[in-house]
Write a structure and sequence with these properties.
elongated; Preph_deHydtase (chains A, B, C, D); five-stranded mixed β-sheet; 15 strands; 3 domains; Alpha-Beta Plaits; 9 helices; about 300 residues; alpha/beta; D-Maltodextrin-Binding Protein, domain 2; homotetramer
């Protein structure tokens, strides 16, 4: 029995398309599940080797369900990320003309990405109804419940529909980022273009509190690529911060920054170091002067000599 | 014709309850609208004097629709905020017993706040269906579409339902924060317990970039109460930051921090200074030494004397 | 009676040479006095319009007597600075050969600048005796007390001596910096290449205390060119800091930094803004993005619009 | 032959008194030498095991000769420091009355500490002549060259003089700090009240440059007790910084700060970790939260678990 990957289903969604870009999926059983929590629970419960879920999109921002699941509960780790360009097709039953469309459907997350297009191209009184997923919306069109669905073009065939319009996306560069999540284990070796994800809690609320935490990265030349606040659930205004930083926990500058945070934060949760999607190794900026592994090692050697009085 | 306030409807939601805590609503026409964008558009279009919408809740975090509407489009300003404790009642048609419940409904935002309660108190196979609002869920129960609705207890009477269980809330201290938003005008005078909201964009991505922006607050002793990143829509990883800081734009330390941000950020959007809900003036920490208005004025006088050579 | 400038005498020292590079000395009476305190007291007492004294040299560092006099007592201000290349000549009575020299003299400050030269060029057993000034050393050679004096070549004629060797200077780029000091008055207008001098006292001793003070400059893009600690006289380890920063008190970034210091330091003493010697206007780096006067004014305008609700 | 300690002589100076407070001097030969450079050269050349020299006094600040000798040349290390209260006696030949005094002498460093006393207690026309040391001044009085000498009371007997006035000191709390310097070797073990001395050079001159270096200490909770700038000798305005920090190189927070400096500075010179004079272990503040050795070790363990995926 092959190991299985649970992913946010149903089949025929962007998530599945993104997942299939990972080479190892060829040898895994891919299991659609109904929700992000269900996917992660499958990992925690041992039914799945890993879960593949969306975590950020360029229009809506962080996918809070995924973030909140990673922030709380039994620890999980991110092993891979995938970036997928998101463009929608308007899927209809064969024979439907654009002027026939009175009702459309899709997952609510699709709405901000097609809202302007709808205003410009569909009748003003067209009715939008939410579907559980874009694929499910397509199914409902197939069943005749709605006239049209916004979904990935790849979903048309499965549901006997045709793409009336393609390449629909209100925002340029619309992308969704997905992560492959598993139980904690040794992170993959650095590739030279890596990211490290971590969640930090602040000890107390005082002027400059968050700034001091960010300083742990800044002073060591570690660039942040994402900072998202998430409520801790203990009351309004109590937030933790999910941070994505450039570099790998095996990089000395990243390791020292993480240890610095561990010392000053009441809690730090390491979410993994993994290859950064969409960034080639040759495009990675060299570390700032004084923060390369070689410089860390040289400084460590120097310190040892000072401690021994040999200099 | 009285001035009107548009609010996220329908009637009978937590939003309406929160809105009615504002004394001036006695002399305003309160108009429920279907969505946050509709409420803000009513203000922008001049049909409403102000809009009242949720902006943050202690379980889900920032209400992204509201944030994104404030971040983009024609500028608006926040004039008031209201904090409301959120607890749900399970509303049913008279005569329904808890064991009769096969289907429940509510707005999706309610789900994380009642999920654990459901697990512990309802049958495992009970079906959850999302409603457009909690009040709408109650209406659907009245119509017989579902067996029970999670909603504010106050909604029962309007829909001929009875509260089978009350005080349901998975998280302690569950609260939602609402804001009253209008067209830009002179902010209300400081009360001594104020907040200032601002959105900042970062010029470039380098180690310490965000830290440098937060430094503008920290060096002047201005405490941050909320920092949320929101995608700019220009591509994955491009974020602006919505910040709530303690103090009023009329406070010299806040004013200087805002000017500092204005100089180093490509864009800063001022969202208003307004009384801070839930914090009494006597509970506000005095400003850090060197950051009171008196000290700013004294330093300014001293500088003038230096520039004149009189010292 | 022309206004007079007191300078550290006697005549024939480097100080006089440096002073005479100031054009206005043509119309002033130049009065040599015996010490830096005497020169500054002449200003404080009203006997001299200004005093001209050394404040820093590239070999010995800050001239502590001058710094301490400016730090304490009745306030004074720096109006001009002069940089002078320092090279020594070995002055002897006519007829003296280098092998005849058994004793040499000069002001103690000269010693570190000629020490290596002496080791290489004079007999090992030559005796050094300190003189009250380099010019006084020359006088003592004239009188026959010593065989040779290190002094400026310009001093030879006055004392009937001849320069046996010239261009003596152990360190390359040996320079001394002099300042023209007067009673407080309005600083001269900015030239575009200016410096501002200030003395700051620290409120308390905690990790990062000095760093926080320097941050007042750094966050506003003001570069420091000199930082010297001087004892406050209240006990070992109690220091104040004499700071030279790039820019003029009329520059908004400098003014705001000074006010910031004034607010957080128990005491700040402004020592003046004046043209920077040795730096041409065209070689001055433009202010860091966000710190020019124009950007300060624009931010101030923006703030006023925010405060008025006009944006 | 016992190991010898060279000290700034001659006998009978404050330096000798301070040196004799060290218990180990009972078993060492104490050798007075004519200058600080001579004392340090004796160590570098192997003729002395250690040198004992003044490094700071509360009136004059850093003893620049000592600092400059430690900053340049073959590396040396500080092993001990001694704080000595400095009060002067006015020494005269037996029979001299205060009204007989026409000339006084002492080392130039004594002058700022007795200047006010002289003004109040001696005739206005009394003549001050500098001596090579305070002890040498006493000798010159013995020889009849001058009428009185300012020196330590302990010097009277040796030169057949009597203390006419004692406890002379213009400033309260006048102290001089001395250091025992030797060739580099393993620093003594931490006592709990230690200091670490280091010299740092700055890579480039930009706004915030020095602040960034001080940040290496601040972010790790290491308090600075002294910062002195010394010219590098390469031109006016080029300075290095001699820094005394609280703590021992064996403290993890100090070690990490030193490594941080080593990475970002073109040069760092470690001058030793040694017991702090005048501070009892029980008066040392506990390290700031997050900076104790225990917290460093715990963070290091946590990092290792993250790197192994065991958490």
């Amino acid at each position: 029995m092959p190991a299985s990957y649970a992913y946010l289903g149903p089949e025929g969604t962007f998530t599945e398309v993104a997942l299939r870009t990972l080479p190892e999926t060829a040898t895994r059983e891919l299991v659609p599940v109904v929700s992000v929590p269900a996917a992660l629970d499958a990992v925690r419960g041992g039914e799945a080797e890993a879960a593949f879920v969306p975590i950020e999109n360029s229009v809506e921002g962080g996918i809070t369900t995924t973030l909140d699941e990673l922030v709380a509960g039994e620890p999980l780790m991110i092993y891979r990320e995938v970036l997928l360009d998101i463009t929608f097709a308007l899927l209809v039953r064969p024979g439907t003309a654009i002027s026939d469309i009175k009702t459309v459907t899709a997952h609510p997350a699709a709405q901000p990405q097609v809202r302007n297009w709808m205003k410009d191209n569909l009748a003003e009184d067209v009715i939008w109804e939410s579907a559980a997923s874009n694929a499910d919306g397509a199914r409902l069109v197939q069943e005749g419940r709605y006239d049209a669905a916004f979904a990935g073009e790849f979903a048309a065939e499965k549901y006997g529909l045709v793409p009336l319009v393609t390449e629909i996306h209100d925002a340029e560069n619309a992308q969704t980022r997905f992560v492959l999540v598993g139980k904690p284990a040794r992170p993959a070796a650095p590739t030279g273009a890596d990211k490290t994800s971590v969640v930090i809690w602040q000890r107390e609320d005082h002027p400059g509190g968050l700034m001091e935490l960010l300083q742990e990265f800044a002073i060591r030349g570690v660039n942040l690529v994402l900072l998202q606040s998430r409520p801790t659930g203990t009351g309004i205004g109590d937030y933790c911060f999910a941070i994505d930083a450039e570099g790998h926990i095996a990089d000395r500058r990243v390791a020292e920054a993480l240890m610095g945070l561990k010392r000053v934060c009441p809690e730090v949760r390491f979410l993994g170091s993994y290859p950064r999607a969409g960034v080639a190794v040759e495009d990675v900026r060299p570390p700032r002067s004084g923060t390369s592994d070689g410089e860390f090692v040289a400084a460590s050697d120097w310190l040892a000599r000072c401690q021994d009085g040999r200099f």
